[in-house]
Amino acid sequence: MKNNLGKIFIFCTFFLSALFADVKLTLNTPAIYAGEMASFTITSNSDGDVEFPEINTIDSYNIINRSSSSSTTIINGNYSKKISKTYSFAPTKDVIIPAFEVKVDGKTYTTNPQKISVLQPSASKDGEDFVIQIKADKQEVKVGESINLDVMFKYKLDSQIDKLQISDPKLENFWIKKVGDAEKSSENEYIVYTQKYLLFPQKSGEYDLKSLEADVGKAFKQKMANDFFNDPFFKDPFFDSITSTIKWQKIYSNDLHISVKSLPNNLELFGDYTLKATVDKTLVEANQPVNLTIDINGVGNIDDIQKFNLTIDNVVSYADEPKIDSTFEDKEYKGDFSQKIAFVAQNDYTIPKISLTYFDKNTNQVKTIYSEPINIKVINNNSNNTAVKIETSNNTPIVSNNSEETPKIKEDKNINYIVLALVVLVVILALLLLFRNKKTDKKVEKDIVQAIKKAKNDKELFELLLTYSKKSGIITDTLNKLEENLYKKTNHKIDKNELMNFFEDEIM
């Protein structure tokens, strides 16, 4: 009878668990703005065996993050368990979360489909507490032509703002450069912060700069439930920082459409430039370098000027990497391009004219500018000279001349023999000294073995080993132990046999 009652109790327990099992899908983010993360949670309120579905995608959007949690509660002797799994992803349009099957103790439960709406953010407007706007000085440009973009954040004088985070503009096929720090000003009832950017289009096409996002943080104090903290001691500002929390508000800017036209002949350089080429000398000895400096300055996308490489017949050349210094002045991007090229030759040569082709911003036409050719006169040429080469060290050309010296007609063989004899003598003396030193070292090390054996206390052994402190890690460790024994009153055991074995191995 008792056994039957036990079976009935177990059966009832499982029956009630299955009967009251509760599985549901909850949207944590019923609606989001494009670019934000959406998430949903599947929860099972059952103390049975729960098997959740394997979810990797939602309507072609990959699951980016997963998390799990569980909790157990006992109320009036009633035991309940809650298991949850949360999934996060980033949809760009409205999406339906489909029905999922969850098994509890072998029984299948199905969740209800749910919809997450993806909203297009509405731009903040004047009159609101916080406003973010983007403005460009032009919205129709050519490839390489700069655009001045201002990102302005405005807030009312009486509004609260404790933290601010603003995203930087990003646009495919554009090179974007931040200019300086944000400038502060006032406009009617607003304080205005303006951050300037330069945009350089790299490819023609129609582009939309999506609205920028600003996160405005407001600090709120959290009220302590325990009356103990009403003590005046805890009203110190130090505790305010501990008990406050930041509440974030998102605001969005306007969008911006930019039309980029291609340049003729697939050009990428736009602006207004001047070009100059100079050398440090026009008269040079054979196999000595002539240094050419190319200077280009002007307004435009000067960073896109490519490195020059010049090839001249029978002349060795080395082209340094160019250096570009740029500034932003009077709403224009300006810069200086400088590059050095070294030439070495044995005969006269001419450095050809250097050209730069770009689309002129003033005439709206393709323009090519040139430097003048430069004639180099080479003197003291020797027809027996072999080829020269230029090696580099820290980007500095170093000329190496491989020319052979003219052989002497007569050589003093006696001097050569004397030098050879001296070299042999020096080698013999060095070997003798080395052999003698080895014998001395062996004798010294043999003596140290005996001295270690005879050392009566830690102090004698310490003084004996000091000379050999850097000879081995064994000696260093022993010295450290001896020092602690002598000055810190420790009682490290010193292994003399290990020390003697070390020195005996050295003798061998």
Binned, the helix content reads 10-25%
Counting helices, strands and paired strands, the structural category is alpha+beta
CATH class of the largest domain: Mainly Beta
Query: Residue ranges: pLDDT <50 for 5 or more in a row?
Result: 1-20, 225-229, 391-411
End-to-end gap: 91 Å
Mean pLDDT: 82
Radius of gyration of CA atoms, rounded to a whole number:
42 Å
CATH third-level topology of the largest domain: Immunoglobulin-like
Q: Give the number of helices.
A: 6
> How many domains comprise the coordinates?
4
| Share in β-strands | 35-45%
Q: By CATH's scheme, which homologous superfamily of the largest domain applies?
A: Immunoglobulins
Characterize the main sheet: 7 strands, mixed
Shape: flat
Corresponding CATH architecture of the largest domain: Sandwich
Number of strands: 34
Organism: Arcobacter venerupis
Pfam family, one: BatD
Protein name: Aerotolerance protein BatD
InterPro entries: BatD (IPR025738)
